[in-house]
C-alpha cells in the first residue's frame, strides 16, 4: 500500500486547501486550547467542509465528556485522536460514547515506553507513536513539539491495530523515517509550519510530494 499522510493542526481554509490539493489522506483539527493550533468547533465545522475524501481527525488531550460532546455537536469528525494520559479504559469509553474510531498516541523516548502499548492494542482502533521530548526541548505541549525519537525503536514491531508515526517529521526526513520504522502512515504538524501554529502551504505541498513519491 502507498504511504499515507495526515497533516495535523490545520486552522484556515487556505491550509486545508493546500493539504487537500496535495493529496492528504487525513486532516487533523486540534481541540486543545493551550495549543497555538487549537480551533473552535465552529471553525472546524466551516473548514471541515473542504476536506474532500480526507479523514477528519479531532485531536483531544484528556477531554471530558462535556468537551467531546460540545465539539461533536458543532463539527463533523471521522476519528478521534487522544494525545494525553487517557487510560485504555477511557480510550474505549470515548470510542463507545462517540461512535468514532479512536487513535491513541503513545509517547516514546526509549524501549521501555513500548510496555504500555499492548493495553491499547485493542482498547483503541489505531495507535500513534510520537516523541516524548527530551527534558528542556519542546513547547510544554504533550505533542506537536517538532521533536523526533529514535525510529529504529519501531523497526520489526507488530501490533494488531494500524499505526502512524509522528514527531519531528518534515519533507527532508520522512523518507528515512519510513525506511527505518516501517511506518505505513505518517503524521506531521510542526514540520509544515513557518512558526508554531502557522501552517505553510508550500511546506505542506513539499511534505506531501515527498510522501507521495515513496
Ligand atoms: O499539534 C499540536 O498542537 C498538539 C498539541 C497537543 C498534543 C498533540 C499535538 N500534535 C500532535 O503531535 C504529534 C507530533 O507533531 P510534530 O509534527 O512533531 O509537531 C502529531 O501527531 C500531532 O498530531
TrEMBL record:
Family designation: Belongs to the TrpF family.
EC number: 5.3.1.24
Pfam families the UniProt entry points to: PRAI (PF00697)
InterPro entries: Aldolase_TIM, PRAI_dom, RibuloseP-bd_barrel, TrpF_fam
Protein's UniProt keywords contain Amino-acid biosynthesis: yes
Keywords: Amino-acid biosynthesis, Aromatic amino acid biosynthesis, Isomerase, Tryptophan biosynthesis
NCBIfam families from the UniProt entry: PRK01222.1-1
Catalytic class of the enzyme: isomerase
Gene Ontology BP term (one): L-tryptophan biosynthetic process
Lineage: Bacteria, Pseudomonadati, Pseudomonadota, Alphaproteobacteria, Minwuiales
Entry annotated with the keyword Amino-acid biosynthesis: yes
Protein name in the entry: N-(5'-phosphoribosyl)anthranilate isomerase
Organism expressing this protein natively: Minwuia thermotolerans
